[in-house]
């Protein structure tokens, strides 16, 4: 079955197609245009791989009419899977959040409510290392779990003053990543690379996390914290980060994802050098 498949990524210069290897059925080509376009093709480039586009496929007029796409080697009619929002009530709408209660109609015509979802501004997560290979972390209180957590520097995209959510101009993620790193830790990046943009929680939220790798970071000043921020800066070795994650003491899911992406990138570089 496909769920048992293993993503096969070929090092730069040898990437001929996006493939999934299934032990039962062998190699399956994955036409991945929609996925890669959504993430601005930054994922493979950020990880150190190159995509030639040979796995892309232009949709025929018939496919466009039926909104049929290729997904992991299978034809999927999106219309058969889509839900339709029949009604929505905005429970809370301010400059911080748009929290909604919705009723949805399923593909078979039946409906259900309530479904709750929210929209918040996008945010950045910065996996930063100094010139000695130590990773820069922060410790601060998180009200969701009611405890102090260890995590990477992170924060929301700044926007111009407004009284309602979604108004105003938002800053670029790259600028936000550099700003948050400097404000929270006092470090500036010698080199910074975007790895991925991904929904932070596709089940209930529409905002995105933008993940960055910052390397060769050096102290460039003091912290410049917001009035609501109280945090300490810590330096950790890669082994210590792994121990924190696998012991359940690195309690931010997107930050753990960011860490494993960085490790994948480093391993890809090592393969290219060998």
Structural commentary:
The protein is α+β, with helices and mostly antiparallel strands. The protein starts with 5 loop residues before the first strand and ends with a helix. The strands form four sheets. Strands 9, 10, 11, 12, 13, 14, 15 and 16 form an eight-stranded mixed β-sheet that branches. A three-stranded antiparallel β-sheet has the order 1-2-3, with no helix packed on it. It contains six helices and 16 strands. Helices cover 22% and strands 36% of the residues. A hairpin with an 8-residue loop joins strand 14 and strand 15. It folds into three domains: 79 residues, no CATH class; 36 residues, no CATH class; 151 residues, Alpha-Beta Complex (Nucleoside Triphosphate Pyrophosphohydrolase).
Number of strands: 16
Using only C-alpha atoms, the radius of gyration works out to 21 Å
User: What structural class should be given to the helix and strand makeup?
Assistant: alpha+beta
Q: Please tell me the CATH architecture of the largest domain by its name.
A: Alpha-Beta Complex
H-E order: EEEHHHEEEEEEEEEHEEEEHH
Distance between the termini: 34 Å
CATH superfamily heading of the largest domain = Nucleoside Triphosphate Pyrophosphohydrolase
Tell me the count of domains.
3
Proportion in helices: 10-25%
The mean pLDDT is 79
Which fold name is given in CATH as the topology of the largest domain? Nucleoside Triphosphate Pyrophosphohydrolase
| The level-1 CATH class of the largest domain | Alpha Beta
